[in-house]
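Reminder to self: tokens first, then the designed residues, so the page reads top to bottom the way the pipeline ran.
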């Protein structure tokens, strides 16, 4: 289980997160919803170690990881697929996937067959440069690279952004399959309620750095969630 406990986060004098608490459980999708600029990505940066928190605690699998650097959290099984994908455009698809080896023991440094089963298009493009792929293919590559790390917590920041509908369906199918295997916790940041509703067991809504609504998907009022997401 991931536990975020009363976390504050600042960028200089500006506060991005205020007393945020959240949990994500293995075998479930926890979806974080909210409009642009409300702190969703800042929370992911806190969880993954990309930005230090000002106060509060973050625990993963019972251990306090609040002050651990990002690479040590990756070694503990936390994989982040950032908004914008951040693949290496001049590396081939194969080379991009192999960057996930960095956190693995030498004997485990291979691309799992499951990666190509989940994203068969990548197997046909191993020699193509990442920058030559479409946006949807790059998103699939970014998720696949994270899976190479054999994560126990998969953090996805708006994986549907700028992606064509057919690939959004493929990504949703992959997330659902990973959830059903029961081997990892999945934290999903989204702006689109319909995509989140179909995948998440737990939903949290952010506004101005706070969690303003959270609970099991079936216990929340859909109209209330949608109202909080409207501009």
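Designed residues (231 positions):
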């Amino acid at each position: 289980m991931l536990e975020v406990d009363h976390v504050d986060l600042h960028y200089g004098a500006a506060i991005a997160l205020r007393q945020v608490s959240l949990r994500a459980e293995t075998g479930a999708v926890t979806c974080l919803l909210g409009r642009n600029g409300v702190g969703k990505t800042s929370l992911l940066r806190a969880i993954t170690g990309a930005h230090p928190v000002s106060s509060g605690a973050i625990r993963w699998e019972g251990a306090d990881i609040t002050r651990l650097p990002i690479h040590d959290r990756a070694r503990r099984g936390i994989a982040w697929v950032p908004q914008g994908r951040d693949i290496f455009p001049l590396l081939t698809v194969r080379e991009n996937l192999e960057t996930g080896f960095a956190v693995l023991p030498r004997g485990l440094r291979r691309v799992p067959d499951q990666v190509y089963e989940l994203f068969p298009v990548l197997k046909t493009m191993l020699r193509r440069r990442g920058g030559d792929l479409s946006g949807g293919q790059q998103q699939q590559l970014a998720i696949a690279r994270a899976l190479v790390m054999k994560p126990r917590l998969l953090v996805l920041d708006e994986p549907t952004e700028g992606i064509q509908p057919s690939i959004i369906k493929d990504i949703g199918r992959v997330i659902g399959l990973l959830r059903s295997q029961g081997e990892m916790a999945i934290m999903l940041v989204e702006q689109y309620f319909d995509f989140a509703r179909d995948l998440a067991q737990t939903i949290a809504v952010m506004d101005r750095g706070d969690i303003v609504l959270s609970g099991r998907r079936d216990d929340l009022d859909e109209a209330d969630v949608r109202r909080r997401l409207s501009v």
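The radius of gyration is 17 Å.
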